[in-house]
Amino acid sequence: MFTDEDMTVNAFDPKTLASDLDCVRNIYAVFFAGLTAEDWRLPENEGEHEWNLREATIQNGKLFSVDAKG
To answer: How far apart are CA 50 and CA 41, in angstroms?
Structure first.
């Protein structure tokens, strides 16, 4: 059983972060593999003021960006 302190400390462990980001990469890879060119233009929730998939992806990328330079 993990304590709250264990979970907080482990959340920032480099191996844990790398593993988590690898899982996110796999989710994106499967998701994007199934898209067509038309999918990128459709609104997320079919509303006229909603982001399209391209805009939503850009926003997610900004939230989850990692400096690849190390």
So the answer is: 11
Amino acid found at 1: M
Q: What is the pLDDT of residues 12-67, one digit of tens each?
A: 788 888 888 888 888 888 988 998 988 887 766 666 677 778 887 888 777 666 55
Give the list of residues 6+ apart from residue 54 with CB closer than 8 angstroms, or none: 40, 41
The two tokens of residue 3 are 């304590």
The label of the residue with tokens 């006229």 reads 48
For helices 4-11 and 14-33, the axis angle rounded to 10 degrees is 70
| Closest by CA position to 24, among listed 70, 61, 68, 67 | 61
Count other Cβ atoms within 10 Å, centred on residue 44.
Answer: 11
Please state the pTM of the whole predicted model: 0.52
